[in-house]
UniProtKB/TrEMBL annotation:
<comment type="function">
    <text>Phosphorylation of dTMP to form dTDP in both de novo and salvage pathways of dTTP synthesis.</text>
</comment>
<keyword id="KW-0545">Nucleotide biosynthesis</keyword>
<keyword id="KW-0067">ATP-binding</keyword>
<keyword id="KW-0547">Nucleotide-binding</keyword>
<keyword id="KW-0808">Transferase</keyword>
<protein>
    <recommendedName>
        <fullName>Thymidylate kinase</fullName>
        <ecNumber>2.7.4.9</ecNumber>
    </recommendedName>
</protein>
<dbReference type="GO" id="GO:0006227">
    <property type="term" value="P:dUDP biosynthetic process"/>
</dbReference>
<feature type="domain" description="Thymidylate kinase-like">
    <location>
        <begin position="15"/>
        <end position="203"/>
    </location>
</feature>
<comment type="similarity">
    <text>Belongs to the thymidylate kinase family.</text>
</comment>
<keyword id="KW-0418">Kinase</keyword>
<dbReference type="GO" id="GO:0005524">
    <property type="term" value="F:ATP binding"/>
</dbReference>
<dbReference type="GO" id="GO:0006235">
    <property type="term" value="P:dTTP biosynthetic process"/>
</dbReference>
<dbReference type="InterPro" id="IPR018094">
    <property type="entry name" value="Thymidylate_kinase"/>
</dbReference>
<dbReference type="GO" id="GO:0005829">
    <property type="term" value="C:cytosol"/>
</dbReference>
<dbReference type="GO" id="GO:0006233">
    <property type="term" value="P:dTDP biosynthetic process"/>
</dbReference>
<dbReference type="GO" id="GO:0004798">
    <property type="term" value="F:dTMP kinase activity"/>
</dbReference>
<feature type="binding site">
    <location>
        <begin position="17"/>
        <end position="24"/>
    </location>
    <ligand>
        <name>ATP</name>
    </ligand>
</feature>
Length: 216
């Protein structure tokens, strides 16, 4: 299949899944493959991606706080990231690969913490409205993996942060939250069977891009 140029408004691809699902591994691989095709690729992450959002990330990952505070800080970091990094890159016609976005807030704060989904929807509407309109990812790759498998991958790899220290039941709820988001947006969210080995997962990532004409 021939490769189509990204739309003039760029291409926004997000990576989602519980901690240890394999997102970072495949963002790097996809960035390399897309650059090889001549795309201008920005790789970024949430929470984070700007100096302010990285400061908020440090608080979010290491300081205890109530669920509303956590949700507001996630969206504050996202707004700064969206207007300073994501929108400019997309408006310049580039590809943005982002490790997590708003689906993570629904999964972690909404389903993991049990925070009000209606309030999250309101915040999503505010934060993702920019001068050029409503911004949503063009495609979201959801790395679906059983929490026990993800935990085994992360075991001993690094000191766990606040979220990674949560019990398996928390990640079961987060995983169910991702499944619900995928059901609500089947055109946008592509399920990747992330329990398979790295080559098999990479194959699924490439297939999703090929089906959209973004990779040959
Ligand atoms: N399909 C896979 N099979 C086995 N191990 C994997 C697979 N994908 C990634 N890993 C390994 O699992 C660990 C976690 O992977 P990675 O950092 O890509 O996950 P992540 O989803 O980005 O995690 P986090 O959200 O916690 O940053 C790494 O050691 C990585 O090498
Ligand atoms: C965007 C976002 C993230 N989180 C959580 C999920 C992860 O545990 C950490 C980020 O760490 P990573 O190693 O970069 O994956 O933050 C969240 O709870 N809500 C969010 O919106």
């Amino acid at each position: 299949m021939s490769v189509v140029a990204p739309p003039a408004t760029g291409l926004f691809i997000t990576f989602e899944g519980i901690d240890g699902a394999g997102k970072s591994t495949h963002i790097t691989a996809l960035a390399d493959a897309l650059r090889h095709q001549g795309y201008a690729v920005t790789v970024t992450r949430e929470p984070g991606g700007t100096p302010l959002a990285e400061e908020l990330r440090a608080c979010l990952l290491h300081t205890g706080m109530d669920a509303l505070t956590e949700a507001l800080l996630m969206f504050a970091a996202r707004r700064d990231h969206l207007v300073r990094v994501i929108e400019p890159a997309l408006l310049a016609g580039g590809v943005v690969l982002c490790d997590r976005f708003t689906d993570a807030t629904f999964a972690y704060q909404g389903h993991g913490r049990g925070f009000d989904l209606g309030i999250l929807r309101t915040l999503e509407g505010w934060v993702q409205t920019t001068p050029s309109g409503w911004r949503q990812p063009d495609m979201t790759l959801w790395f679906d993996v059983p929490p026990a498998v993800a935990a085994a991958r992360l075991a001993g790899a690094r000191a766990p942060d606040k979220f990674e220290s949560e019990p398996q039941a928390f990640f079961e709820r987060v995983a169910a939250g991702y499944a619900q988001r995928a059901q609500e947006a089947p055109q946008r969210i592509v399920r990747i069977d992330a329990a398979l080995d790295v080559p098999a997962v990479w194959q699924q990532v490439q297939d999703a891009c090929r089906q959209r004409g973004w990779l040959p």
